[in-house]
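Appendix C. Worked example: diphosphomevalonate decarboxylase
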Amino acid sequence: PPPQSGPGDATAVAHPNIALVKYWGKRDEQLVLPRVDSLSMTLDIYPTTTRVRLAPDADHDHVTLGGVPAEGEALRRVVSFLDLVRARAGRPLRAVVDSHNTVPTGAGLASSASGFAALAVAAAAAYGLDLDATAHSRLARRGSGSASRSIFAGFALWHAGPPTATPAQADLGSYAEPVPAPGLDPALVIAVVNAGPKAVSSREAMRRTVDTSPLYEPWALSSRDDLSEMRAALARADLDAVGEIAERNALGMHATMLAARPAVRYLAPATLTVLDSVLQLRRDGVSAYATMDAGPNVKVLCHRADADRVAHTLRGAAPGGPVLVAGPGRGARLLPE
Ligand code: 2P0
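Step 2, the predicted output written as structure tokens:
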């Protein structure tokens, strides 16, 4: 039977998002407060489905990811997230969590975004918290920063939040909200050049970049201009401007990591081969722009009408890994619909 969400037992689905203006660097690790605003597109592929059931007789949380019991850091992150929800609900009960990702985990394909967005919505409902989308976004942020954006459909802006006097105020000030982009009909073509887990977690890589990279502050400053120009470009449905800003913002983010000590390098030879083919597409008159996250995989923004041609070119450039076409997807929600 289809899952029925209600108090005590709730199932949620969420999709990953890809940032066009990146989140890189925290100002508060505990609260997951970023140093910069970021802006993303939620995808319509790679959903994560997560069921949370309260377990009155259990003395610890049971967590499975893809049917396999979670352990180590993955388990710790889910349990601390549930602790937050329990504290807020004033209910100490343990839970059974079953999560199914369709996206390769830890490969820079935003599995933690869909994962914690689905967990936030399902856990809040199971523990009887009545949260609006903004509150879901703040809560999801505590699990993984980028998850704050997957609460929303389409384009979303995650506010770093203003400087504040207290941690409670800071928590309130950092959440995502939808950004309308009327008239834009985009696709993101994803070239998976390596679906394996990354060697350095994005959490560790961000920390090292902020602490040691002389390029971090200049990038964070320029990112503010990228964000305001991106909002204007989305509002006028200017895909070429959206793509140019996204590509320069991502390359700049990777430059900050390359300048960290020791360097963090997610870009692989196949990444550069795909970037060359994106340049060639542009020379051939196709509006195509690349972005890369904490991994070697490349996401190419284009008009939806050009997506098949772009996908064909990327398949030729990076034989081996799958190439998928994604469009703007829905926000996180409880099942059934
Ligand atoms: C982003 N990334 O904006 C950036 C660009 C990767 C590169 O958000 O430590 O998994 O859990 O808050 O959200 C990946 O970082 O990090 C990420 P945590 P998260 O999408």
